[in-house]
């Protein structure tokens, strides 16, 4: 079988059409317009990026998670009445030391809360799992350790499913825990160095009712 050689254009110069004076003037006049349109498009694109929705749906504080308090019973019907507009569904989630069933609160399809049972119709903890929630000091999921102004002395090292993750107490709110992720860090015995810890990102905001609260 014979393979034919690729066709090559004959070696000759190609005459290029000369721009007429009118065409040249039009190009020079239109250039600033085209540039302005391009810059306008870039500006619009950047504006869209900078307006990623960060509306706050609920806030977790020492007192509770949004309208949920220590007096709130653990029940689907009770949570639906307390959170109008939310859908309450049963989910499976990974807490620090086990995988368990929880009631999750969804807003327009977005999972906002995971509510764990303590048995006897009581709530054990509420996990905020979206950046549309804030903590007691304005902490928001996705913030770095530095942005959240977290004090490393208030942190411990996570175990089990959260192995190596810094778990910290929020400033002025002992019932609120902040769970951070440190990419690539695997130690389960101590927190990473200060520079590495500074880049850890907030993953969960957890409210735990006080005993007898």
Mean pLDDT: 79
CATH superfamily grouping of the largest domain: protein yfey like domain
State the CATH topology of the largest domain. protein yfey like fold
User: Class of the largest domain, according to the CATH hierarchy?
Assistant: Mainly Beta
Weakly predicted, low-confidence segments: 1-53
Roughly how many Å apart are the termini? 87 Å
- Total of DSSP H or I helical runs spanning 4+ residues: 3
- Following the backbone from N to C, one meets helices and strands in this order, namely HEHEEEEEEEEHE
Q: Which architecture of the largest domain per CATH?
A: Sandwich
What kind of sheet is the major sheet?
8 strands, antiparallel
Structural domains: how many: 2
Rg, Cα atoms, Å: 28 Å
Tell me the total number of β-strands. Answer: 10
What structural category arises from helix and sheet content? alpha+beta
Shape: globular
Which strands sit side by side, in order, in the main sheet?
Answer: 2-3-4-5-10-9-8-7
What share of the residues lie within helices? 10-25%
Work out the strand percent. 25-35%
Structure description:
The chain has helices at residues 21-50, 76-82, 194-198, and strands at residues 58-59, 87-94, 99-107, 110-119, 122-128, 133-134, 155-157, 166-170, 173-181, 201-207. It is α+β, with helices and mostly antiparallel strands and 213 residues long. The protein folds into two domains: 23-52; 58-207, Sandwich (protein yfey like fold). Strand 3 and strand 4 (110-119) form a beta hairpin. The model is unreliable at 1-53 (pLDDT under 50).
